[in-house]
Amino acid sequence: MTAPKKSVIEFPSVTDQAYKESKRHLKVSEIMSRKVITTTPETPMIQAAKTMGEKHIGSLIVVKFKTPVAIVTERDLLTKVLACNLDMKKTLVGQVMSYPLIKICPPFEIREAARTMINKKGRLVVFVCGKLAGIITASDLIREMPMAPETSLVVDDFMTKEIVSVNEDETVQSVAGIMGKKRVGSVIVTRDKKPSGIFTERDLLSTFIVQSRPLDTPVGEAFSSPLKTAPAGISIHEAAKIMAAQHVRRLPIMKKKRLAGIITARDLVEAYAK
């Protein structure tokens, strides 16, 4: 008769524990993006949008008299230009930029950076001795989100349950207007009344504005498909790992084979900051 197998309890190694602890105390200087792209208040929004699309970034720092004074983002383009039916060629960056800049110092730990981002509601600009040194976005923070008690919270409690969806026949111009008015960075695209893919701010910049494609194109010709999803009940740390691995900032959440909500990088930062 074979003796029953004894269960083995595995404990994390000292190295694993030290690594997890070091991740919790990462500094702003270790995760910030050091290559900061700038623009000026006199730049037309069409050119600013093309720069963001070409560089695959969501914001530009606005410099006046060699001094960083404001920031212009893809969300500014949506809410203050496209949603208001303004001409991107005639609208200048200075008319829609956001200020003042939200500044942070390199020695801050990443959880404090997350709290500052949520409290001040914007991207963080890093200064060293009064000089621009880098920028921190929600994507930068979730890429380094540590495994910790505060990241074991489940996505169900932080995801957006009110999903904005559009039919694949809607034009990109119309969809951009909807996103701007609803103040959302993405919409779920449906085909035969079923979720088929997603269209984001970055799709608008990279696929249309950079390539000068007409905005009266049906969104069904340009959305990202198939829809990349995650199951309900996963932790915010697991969601952050999925987003970082797939290079996305939004993750639709499925429950019982149905779309239950969508979690964004900013949602994860807000959860981590609590």
- How would you characterize the largest beta sheet? 3 strands, mixed
Structural classification: alpha/beta
Strand/helix succession:
HHEHEEHHEHEEHEHEEHEHEEH
C-alpha end-to-end distance: 55 Å
CATH class of the largest domain: Alpha Beta
The CATH topology of the largest domain is CBS-domain
Q: Which shape, going by the Cα principal axes?
A: flat
- Count of structural domains: 2
Low-confidence parts: 14-19
The protein's oligomeric status is single chain
- Strand fraction equals 15-25%
Strand arrangement, major sheet: 1-2-3
Please provide a brief summary of the model.
This protein has 274 residues and is α/β, with parallel strands linked by helices.
Write up this protein.
The chain has helices spanning 14-24, 28-31, 45-55, 74-82, 93-96, 110-120, 138-143, 172-182, 201-209, 236-246, 265-273; strands at residues 38-39, 59-64, 67-73, 103-104, 124-128, 131-136, 165-167, 186-191, 194-200, 230-231, 250-255, 258-264. It is of the alpha/beta class and 274 residues long. It has 2 domains: 25-137, CBS-domain; 149-273, CBS-domain, CATH 3.10.580.10. The strands form 4 sheets. A 3-stranded mixed sheet has the order 1-2-3. The protein has a 3-stranded mixed sheet with strand order 4-5-6. Strands 7-8-9 form a 3-stranded mixed sheet. α4 (74-82) packs across α8.
